[in-house]
Design brief:
By secondary structure, the protein is mainly α. 19% of the residues lie in helices and 0% in strands.
């Protein structure tokens, strides 16, 4: 079975955002499970941060301070 020349793939091949190799279908947009896990680790550790103004946290009365 041959693939027609005018057939557009579902997802174009892109470079892996971690290492630059071509992505694979099962790990898209990454090239491998390793690169996918590296990226997930960065998200979970807080390495990816969107800069913005500081947020002040208000304390509510009786919130875990041991007093009632």
């Amino acid at each position: 079975m041959s693939i027609p020349a005018n057939l557009t793939p579902l997802r174009p091949k892109r470079k892996c955002p971690e290492c630059g190799r071509l992505s694979t279908r099962e790990h898209y947009p990454f090239c491998s499970a390793r690169c996918k896990d590296i990226d997930l680790g960065r998200w979970l550790s807080g390495s990816y941060v969107i800069p913005g103004s500081a947020v002040e946290v208000e304390e509510t009365p009786g919130s875990d301070d041991g007093e009632e």
